[in-house]
From TrEMBL, chain B:
<dbReference type="InterPro" id="IPR051680">
    <property type="entry name" value="ATP-dep_Glu-Cys_Ligase-2"/>
</dbReference>
<dbReference type="InterPro" id="IPR025841">
    <property type="entry name" value="CP_ATPgrasp_2"/>
</dbReference>
<dbReference type="Pfam" id="PF14403">
    <property type="entry name" value="CP_ATPgrasp_2"/>
</dbReference>
<dbReference type="InterPro" id="IPR016450">
    <property type="entry name" value="UCP005522"/>
</dbReference>
<protein>
    <submittedName>
        <fullName>Circularly permuted type 2 ATP-grasp protein</fullName>
    </submittedName>
</protein>
<feature type="domain" description="Circularly permuted ATP-grasp type 2">
    <location>
        <begin position="64"/>
        <end position="440"/>
    </location>
</feature>
C-alpha cells in the first residue's frame, strides 16, 4: 500500500521563548514492511542544530528555538510503500542488546496487577498468549482521547481503565517484560480506514518472540500492525520514541496543535 | 625504604644520606611551611558530611616515596597494557559485546550495572578513545611486586596534588633535586592539553579549543578543576556558560558565543545533559549528548566509562586484559571474592577478620570494612549487611603492603601507602613518571583515602 | 573570556571595595562618637544609612548603639554589606574566577579572607577595634597591590577596575545622599559647631579629611566639600575621578573588542556632565536631585555593562 503522510506540529508560545531545544524523531527508515519513497522534514521558527542516529537507531534531529520566537512549526511529509507482514518485523538488528528491552522503566513498572494480567493469559505458545494479552488490554482499557498524559504510567492507566494508544502500548510492554520477553515501544503513523485526517500520531508495542523476532501488537485497536502502519521510532517507552520531546527555558505557556493526514495513494498498488 | 638488614633500599641511598644530615627542628619548621603554602594557595578539598569544616587540607608528608627506574618501567608496561584493554573493553561493550558472547564475563555484570549507559551504544568517540585520563591505584608488596587495587576510568582526581607536592618539595629542598635525578611530572598539564587536542572531533577546524567543565566552587575537587584549567591555559566553564548553538557546544564569552571542541568534564554522567539524563540537573548542558552523537564534540572521559571501573568488573580484569590484548596481564589483580557467588560469600563470612570488604559501586573509602582493625561488633553488623545484599560487595585479602617512612613527632615511622599513577590516552598512551602517593597516617592502618584521614607524599621516579 | 568570568571579577572587586568602605564608615563613626559623644544614636543611624543597611539593622535592633552598629557593619552575616559578608562574597567570586587571577592576587584574597574570618569570628572588643579596622584596610590594600603588580593589563583588568569604580562612585554618592542636607546653603550656617562636625564626618567617611585641608586650605565650606567629593578630578573617591577611570577602562574594552555598547554612551555622558559643570550648577539644580539622578545612572550603567558583555 502506498501511503502519503503529512504531519504538521505547531507550537505557539504566549511569551517569547529565550531558549528551547526539541528532539524530533520524525524520520522513517526503509526496513522490513516499509520502503520510504520520499520524505522531508521542514522546520519554521526553529533552527536545526544536529542530526544523528541514536542508540535505538532512530533518526533524531535536534532543533533550537532562540530569540523572540513565539511560534515553531514542523512539517514531516512523504510517501511510504508498505506491506502487510502480519505484524512480524523480524530479527533484532542493532547494537542495542536485546536484554535491555527486558528492563523496567518508570513508565512501564511491572506492578502486581501488571504481572497478574500477563500471567493470566492462556494460549498455545507465546505468540498466542501475546495475542490474548493484546485482546485483554484492549478490553480492560477503553480508548479515550485526552484521558491520560505523557507522564501516565502503565499501572495507572490499567487501574483507571481508560487511556490512549500510548497507555495501551505501555501496559503491553510492561506485561510482556514481566513474563521475560523483550518488548519495545513503537511510535509511528496509522491510516484509520474511515478517514484521512488522523487525530494523532500512533503508538504500539513490539515483543521479541522466539523464532519470529520482533512482532508488533496494537492493543489500542486489538490488531497486529499491517500495511496501514508506518514505523518511525522505537525505544524502551514513550520517552525514547516520542515524535517530539524537549525542554523549554523560560515561562512559556505553550499551545500545541497537530494536524496529520495519512491517505492511500494509487488504490491498485494496495491490492498487489 | 629499608632492607631487612636495615640498610636503605637502593633508590633511597642518596636521600637517606641527606636525611641523616638534616637538623630535625629545621625539618619540622619546613613541614609547617609546607602546610602554610597549601593553606595560602587554597589547596583544599571538601569532606562530604562535615558542614563546619567545608574546606580541609590534606596532610602532606615531606619524605618522598622513591621508585627506581627499573621498577617503574615494569610497572608502566603493565599499566599501558591495562589501559589499552580498558578502552577496547568499552568499545566492545558499547558495540558487539563479543566478550559476553564469548562467555568470558557474565552478561549480568553489564546488564545489572547502572554504569552501563544505553545512550552510548553504537557510539564511537572521536579517536576511538573512551577513557582519556586514567588513574590506576596500585600497591606494592615487595621488590617488583605490584598489585592493581582499582582502575579509575571516570574522572580520576588528585593529579593537582601530584603537581603541588612536587612544586612544594622543589621550593623547600632544591638541593635534593641536584643530588637525585628525579623524572619530571611538571609537564602534565601540557601533556594533558595536547592529549585532549589530539582527539578533537574530525570536523574541528583550526586549533582544537579545549575547556574544563566543573560543577562549580562548591565541588570537593574544585581547586583541582581550576588548577588544571589554569595550567593548561584553557577556560574553566560551568554548565550555565554553555549552550548548543549552530550544531556545536559553545561558551558565552564577553564577545559572544565561542565553540568548544574538547570538553574535559569533571561532572558525573548523570548530570551531564538534563535532556538525556537527570532532567533536574543544572550542572550540565541540554543537548550536549546530541552534539556528541553527531560527532561535533569530544567529551573526556566519555560518558559510560564507569562500566569498566567498578569493583565487580575489576575481578574480571585478568580475563578482560587477556581477551583484548591476547597476552596475560602483566599486572596482578588483588585476589577478589565476589560475594554475589554463594561459595565466595560463605568464605568471606567465615574469614571476615582477615578481609577487606568493599561496596561494588563505592568510592572514597566510604562504606567499607577493614576486617583486621574492625571490632567484633562492627564485623557482626557488617556481616548482616553482607547477607542482606551480597551482590553489593566484594572482598579482598589484606596484603602485606610495603611501607614507607613518614615524619612523626618522634622521628620517622613506617606507614602503608598506595600509588596512583596518571595515564593519558589519545593516539598514544602516556604514563606520567610519578603519581599520587597516598599514605595512611595511623600506624597499621590500610585506609589511605583523604576523606578518611589519609595524607599525601611526593612520588619520585628516578632516572637510570 | 567567559561572560561569567567578567561578572565574577566585576563583583569580586565591587565587594572588596565595599568591604573597605564599610570599614571606613565604622572608622569615621567611631571617631565621631569618640570626640562628639553627644551625637549618640544619630551618629550611628546616619552611618548605617550611608551603608544602605539601616532597614535590615532596624529589623534586628531597637536602637543604634555604638557596639551593635559596629558589630553589624563588621561581622553580621545577614548584612550583605558587612565587612565579613563582603570578603566572603569577594572570595567566592575569586574562587570562581580563579583561573583569571594571578597566583599572587588569589593568595592575597585568600589570606585576607582567612585572616579576617578568624579576626571577626566573634564580637570585637572596643579596645581591639582600631587594630581590626587597620587590618581590614591593610589586607584589602594588599589585594590591590598584588593585583596591580601582577595582572596583565587586558580585559580582565578592565572589568576588575570598572567594578571597583562603579562601587566606589556608588559609595561616595550614598554618603552624600545621606548627608546632603548639611551641605545645603539654606541650612548651613558657616562656622557653627554642628556643621563642622557633620562635614568632618563626611570627609572622614571617604578618608579625605587630610587631603581636603591641602586643597581647600582647611576651610570647611559646604560648596567646597561638595565640589571635592563630586567634581574634583584628582580626589580618588570623587564621582568625577571614578567616571574618568570607568570611561577609560570601557574605552580599552571598546578598542580591544571593536565593539561599542550602550554602556559606553551612558558612561561618556555621565563623565561629560561631571566635567562640564561647576558646583554652583549642581547646587542650583538641587544637590539631592543631582545625587539621586547620579545613583540611578550609575546603576543603569552597571546593568548595561552586564548586558553588553554577557555577564549572564
Amino acid at each position: 500500500m502506498r501511503l502519503k503522510i503529512t504531519h504538521t506540529t505547531e507550537y505557539s508560545y504566549a511569551e517569547p521563548v529565550s531558549y528551547s531545544l526539541q528532539r524530533l524523531r520524525l524520520t522513517p527508515f526503509t526496513e522490513p514492511g516499509q520502503t520510504v519513497l520520499n520524505w522531508e522534514t521542514s522546520v519554521e521558527g526553529a533552527k536545526v542544530e544536529v542530526g544523528y542516529e541514536d542508540h535505538f537507531a532512530n533518526r533524531v534531529t535536534l532543533v533550537s528555538v532562540m530569540g523572540d520566537q513565539i511560534r515553531m512549526r514542523i512539517v514531516a511529509s512523504g510517501e511510504i510503500e508498505t506491506q502487510d507482514r502480519a505484524g512480524v518485523f523480524g530479527p533484532h538488528q542493532s547494537y542495542i542488546p536485546l536484554w535491555l528491552f527486558q528492563r523496567d522503566t518508570p513508565l512501564t513498572k511491572r506492578t502486581k496487577q501488571i504481572r497478574d494480567l500477563a500471567k493470566s493469559q492462556s494460549g498455545d505458545g507465546v505468540l498466542a498468549q501475546m495475542h490474548n494479552l493484546m485482546g485483554a488490554i484492549h478490553q480492560a482499557v477503553a480508548f479515550e482521547p485526552g484521558s491520560t498524559g505523557t507522564e501516565t504510567t502503565a499501572d495507572e492507566a490499567l487501574t483507571r481503565g481508560i487511556g490512549v494508544c500510548q497507555d495501551h502500548a505501555h501496559i503491553f510492554i510492561a506485561c510482556a517484560r514481566s513474563v521475560g520477553l523483550p518488548a519495545r515501544y513503537v511510535s509511528g503513523y496509522l491510516m484509520m480506514d474511515d478517514r484521512i485526517e488522523q487525530t494523532a500520531t500512533h503508538a504500539w508495542a513490539e515483543a521479541h518472540l522466539p523464532g519470529l523476532g520482533w512482532v508488533g501488537f496494537d492493543a489500542a485497536n486489538d490488531v497486529c500492525p499491517d500495511e496501514r502502519y508506518v514505523r518511525i521510532a522505537t525505544g524502551l517507552d514513550y520517552r525514547d520514541a516520542a515524535p517530539i520531546s524537549g525542554l523549554v527555558h523560560g515561562a512559556a505557556n505553550e499551545t500545541l496543535t497537530v494536524a496529520l493526514t495519512v491517505e492511500q495513494q494509487g488504490q491498485s498498488q494496495s491490492q498487489s | 625504604m629499608m632492607n631487612a638488614d636495615n640498610t636503605p633500599r637502593p633508590p633511597y641511598t642518596t636521600y637517606n644520606e641527606w636525611y641523616a644530615n638534616q637538623d630535625r627542628a629545621r625539618l619540622i619548621a619546613k613541614s609547617k611551611e609546607a602546610e602554610n603554602i597549601f593553606r595560602k594557595t587554597g589547596i583544599t578539598f571538601a569532606v562530604y558530611g562535615h558542614a563546619d569544616s567545608a574546606e580541609k587540607l590534606i596532610p602532606f608528608d615531606l619524605i618522598p616515596r622513591i621508585i627506581s627506574a627499573r621498577e617503574w618501567r615494569r610497572l608502566a608496561q603493565g599499566i599501558e597494557q591495562r589501559v589499552l584493554a580498558l578502552n577496547a573493553f568499552l568499545d566492545d561493550i558499547y558495540h558487539k559485546q563479543e566478550i559476553i558472547k564469548a562467555g568470558r564475563i557474565p552478561r549480568e555484570l553489564i546488564e545489572k550495572n547502572d554504569a552501563f549507559l544505553p545512550q552510548m551504544v553504537g557510539m564511537r568517540p572521536p579517536g576511538g578513545v573512551y577513557t582519556h585520563i586514567v588513574g590506576t591505584d596500585i600497591v606494592r608488596t615487595g621488590e617488583d611486586q605490584f598489585y592493581v587495587l582499582e582502575d579509575n576510568a571516570r574522572t580520576p582526581s588528585g593529579v593537582s596534588y601530584m603537581l603541588e607536592n612536587r612544586e612544594t618539595m622543589m621550593q623547600m629542598f632544591p638541593e635534593l633535586f641536584y643530588q637525585n635525578r628525579v623524572q619530571p611530572v611538571e609537564n602534565y598539564p601540557y601533556l594533558l592539553r595536547h592529549s585532549l587536542a589530539a582527539v578533537a572531533p574530525p570536523g574541528c577546524e583550526g586549533k582544537p579549543r579545549v575547556a574544563v567543565l566543573t560543577p562549580g566552587i562548591y565541588n570537593s575537587a574544585y581547586y583541582e578543576h581550576a588548577f588544571l584549567a589554569d595550567m593548561m591555559g584553557v577556560e574553566l566553564v560551568e554548565g550555565s556558560d554553555l549552550r548548543v548553538i549552530d550544531g556545536k557546544v559553545r561558551m558565552r564569552t564577553t564577545r559572544g558565543y565561542e565553540a568548544i571542541d574538547v570538553l574535559y568534564r569533571r561532572v558525573d554522567d548523570d548530570y551531564l545533559d538534563p535532556l538525556t539524563f537527570k532532567p533536574e540537573s543544572a550542572l550540565g548542558i541540554p543537548g550536549i549528548m546530541d552534539v556528541y552523537r553527531a560527532g561535533n564534540i569530544t567529551i573526556a572521559n566519555a560518558p559510560g566509562t564507569g562500566i569498566c571501573d567498578d569493583k565487580a568488573i575489576y575481578s574480571y580484569m585478568p580475563e578482560i586484559v587477556e581477551f583484548y590484548t591476547g597476552r596475560k596481564a602483566l599486572l596482578e589483580n588483588v585476589p577478589t571474592w565476589r560475594c554475589s557467588e554463594p561459595s565466595s560469600l560463605q568464605y568471606v563470612l567465615d574469614n571476615l577478620a582477615d578481609l577487606v570488604v568493599k561496596e561494588v559501586h563505592g568510592s572514597g573509602g566510604y562504606g567499607m570494612l577493614v576486617g583486621p582493625t574492625a571490632s567484633k561488633k562492627e564485623r557482626a553488623l557488617f556481616a548482616d549487611k553482607l547477607k542482606a545484599r551480597p551482590s553489593n560487595y566484594i572482598a579482598q585479602p589484606t596484603l602485606s603492603l610495603s611501607t614507607v617512612p613518614i615524619m612523626v613527632n618522634k622521628g620517622i615511622a613506617p606507614r602503608h601507602v598506595d600509588l596512583r599513577p596518571y595515564v593519558l590516552v589519545s593516539d598514544k598512551v602516556q604514563i606520567i613518571p610519578g603519581g599520587l602517593t597516598r599514605v595512611a597516617l595511623k600506624a597499621g592502618s590500610l585506609v589511605v583515602n583523604s576523606s578518611q584521614g589519609g595524607g599525601t607524599k611526593d612520588t619520585w621516579v628516578l632516572e637510570d | 573570556m567567559l561572560g561569567r568570568t567578567a561578572n565574577g571579577l566585576y563583583w569580586m572587586f565591587r565587594y572588596i571595595e565595599r568591604a573597605e568602605n564599610s570599614a571606613r564608615l565604622v572608622d569615621a563613626g567611631l571617631r565621631m562618637s569618640l570626640t562628639r559623644s553627644h551625637l549618640g544614636e544619630d551618629n550611628w543611624e546616619s552611618v548605617l544609612q550611608s551603608s544602605g543597611v539601616i532597614d535590615i539593622y532596624e529589623q534586628r535592633y531597637e536602637s543604634a548603639t555604638s557596639a551593635d552598629a559596629v558589630d553589624f557593619l563588621l561581622r553580621e552575616t545577614t548584612n550583605p554589606s558587612s565587612v565579613l559578608s563582603c570578603i566572603e562574597t569577594a572570595r567566592s567570586n575569586a574562587r570562581m574566577v580563579r583561573t583569571a587571577l594571578t597566583r599572587e592576587t588569589w593568595e592575597a584574597v585568600n589570606e585576607c579572607y582567612l585572616d579576617l574570618k578568624s579576626m571577626l569570628a566573634r564580637r570585637v572588643k572596643a579596645a581591639d577595634l582600631p587594630e581590626v579596622i587597620d587590618a581590614i584596610k591593610r589586607k584589602t590594600g594588599l589585594i590591590r597591590g598584588a593585583f596591580h603588580g601582577t595582572m596583565l593589563r587586558n580585559d580582565l583588568f578592565n572589568f576588575s577596575r570598572i567594578g571597583t569604580f562603579i562601587e566606589r562612585a556608588d559609595n561616595t554618592a550614598r554618603i552624600l545622599d545621606v548627608k546632603y542636607y548639611v551641605l545645603l546653603p539654606a541650612v548651613s550656617q558657616v562656622g557653627t559647631a554642628i556643621d563642622n562636625v557633620q562635614w568632618e564626618s563626611i570627609l572622614r567617611s571617604v578618608s579625605a579629611h587630610r587631603s581636603y585641608g591641602w586643597v581647600y586650605e582647611a576651610e570647611y565650606k559646604a560648596a567646597n566639600i561638595a565640589d571635592f567629593l563630586i567634581l574634583n578630578g584628582r580626589m580618588p573617591r570623587s564621582l568625577a575621578y571614578c567616571y574618568d577611570k570607568i570611561n577609560s577602562n570601557l574605552g580599552y574594552l571598546e578598542r580591544e573588542y571593536g565593539e561599542r555598547h550602550s554602556a559606553h554612551e551612558t558612561s561618556v555622558n555621565t563623565l561629560k556632565s561631571l566635567r562640564n559643570c561647576s558646583i554652583k550648577d549642581v547646587m542650583d539644580q538641587g544637590l539631592h536631585e543631582y545625587i539621586e539622578t547620579f545613583i540611578t545612572q550609575n546603576n543603569r550603567l552597571s546593568q548595561e555593562i552586564s548586558d553588553g558583555y554577557r555577564f549572564y
